[in-house]
Design brief:
Layout lengths: L3 E6 L3 H14 L2 E6 L2 H10 L4 E5 L7 H8 L7 E6 L3 H13 L4 E6 L4 H22 L8 H10 L2 E10 L5 E12 L3 E3 L5 H6 L3 H21 L6 E6 L8 H11 L7 E6 L7 H13 L3 E7 L6 H6 L4 E4 L1 H4 L6 H16 L3 E4 L5 H9 L4 E2 L10 H10 L8
Parallel strand pairs: 1-2, 1-3, 3-4, 4-5, 7-9, 9-10, 10-11, 11-12, 12-13, 13-14
Antiparallel strand pairs: 6-7, 6-14, 7-8
Helix pairs in contact: 1-5
Length: 399
């Protein structure tokens, strides 16, 4: 068992004793205590810790201020937050930490229980394993030339995550997601290379590669008598290229495909230099027959104004609103409101990131149209999806 150094920031004497005993009972921890944020920062400047656990309600420097200071350290520890305040407050403070680039190991409502402490140890084990995997990766393999060759050679592939109808349980679509079959590192998820592709200004090459592979897969499925619309992520800043829509349409036409079978999801990771480019590109995509989705709605800066002023056909509900909705009445209420708004605007609503049956039940009660997530299927290659489609038929939705 790994042993982790933990610094606990708490100003109540009883909590000091209680937390020390609880962590010792859970095992795998060396615990130190600090009474306030200033003392904690002094300790962090001198010593290395694996985890900082802090209460939010603290004198002089509250937990949020401590989080902001923590983010300025060269190598901050993982962070866990605890409070007797509302769960909504806890989640909001967790978002502060995540947006500052900190690794959030846990959000705990007081009183802290042993199971939650064991959960922290499990999360630290996961972070430790991720760090080892990252340090073992071959260096110097992310040059622009390497990325371009990976795109050209087909190492970076389109895999497809099915979308299931919550009305009848059938597969009604899929989202194309990039996977890199790296010759040395194995299967890499987008988080391992997408940012580097953007930095190398190869995002248009990635977009056209994923579109080309999607059109090829759809043609293969059509030969089997299978028709499936596919959605593809489109970084919004690419709409600054005035000829982008024409190039995408030409690629579809040369493959003798139907643009109505492709939906482009406008992502929030970037924006256009001019707002007119955003609206011009979005309108032209729809004029050419493509579907258009507002991606990650409910996260970041997605706005109601964009939703009602852009000719979207689909509303993608961000996974942050889905995760835990089975146990969180606030999230369930938000999902009901969003799906109702989608219906009034004539949009297909699609929830991302469903992992449990409880979450499916909430989405079904909210009358969400479609869902994707690991409980349905992870992203799979075109051959596996074809097999899944052949097995798919009229059947009841999951219950």
């Amino acid at each position: 068992m790994n042993v982790y150094r933990v610094l606990i920031v708490e100003d109540h004497p009883f909590q000091h004793q209680y937390l020390t005993t609880a962590f010792q009972a859970a095992g795998g921890f060396e615990v130190e205590l600090a009474w306030d944020g200033a003392t904690a920062l002094q300790r962090l400047s001198r010593n290395r810790y694996d985890l900082l656990l802090t209460d939010l309600m603290m004198p002089q420097m509250d937990g949020v201020q401590l989080v902001q200071q923590l983010a300025q350290l060269h190598r901050p520890p993982a962070l866990a937050l605890m409070t007797a305040a509302s769960r909504r407050m806890l989640v909001g403070c967790g978002q502060v930490a995540k947006n500052l680039g900190l690794q959030v190991a846990g959000l705990i409502s007081k009183p802290v229980r042993e199971a939650e402490i064991i959960g922290l140890r499990t999360r630290l084990d996961e972070l430790n394993e991720q760090a080892r995997a990252f340090s073992s990766r071959p260096r110097g393999c992310r040059s622009g030339d390497t990325l371009a060759k990976a795109l050209q050679s087909g190492e970076i592939q389109a895999w497809f995550q099915p979308k299931m109808s919550l009305r009848d349980g059938r597969i009604v679509g899929a989202e194309a997601l990039a996977r890199w079959l790296h010759p040395a590192e194995g299967l890499l998820m987008p988080g391992a290379f997408i940012e580097e592709i953007e930095n190398a200004q190869l995002d248009i090459e990635l977009l056209t590669s994923i579109l080309g592979q999607t059109l090829s897969a759809q043609a293969q499925w059509a030969q089997m008598g299978l028709t499936l619309p596919v959605s593809i992520n489109l970084p919004t800043h690419l709409l600054d290229q005035y000829d982008l829509v024409d190039r995408l349409l030409a690629q579809v036409r040369v493959n003798q495909a139907d643009p109505r079978q492709i939906t482009f999801e406008l992502t929030e990771s970037s924006t256009t230099q001019l707002s007119s480019n955003y609206y011009a590109g979005a309108c032209r995509l729809r004029l050419m027959g493509f579907g258009l989705a507002q991606d990650d709605f409910g996260k970041g800066y997605s706005s109601y104004f964009n939703l009602v002023s852009t000719p979207f056909t689909e509303l993608k509900i961000d996974r942050s609103l889905v995760l835990g909705c089975g146990e969180n009445d606030g999230l369930a209420s938000a999902l009901r409101s969003i799906t109702e708004l989608g219906r009034k605007l004539g949009l297909v609503t699609v929830a991302e990131g469903a992992e449990t049956r409880a979450e499916l039940d909430v989405l079904r009660r909210a009358q969400c149209d479609q869902v994707q997530g690991f409980i349905i299927s992870p992203a799979i290659d075109r051959v596996e999806l074809a097999a899944l489609l052949k097995e798919d038929g009229p059947r009841p939705a999951l219950s």
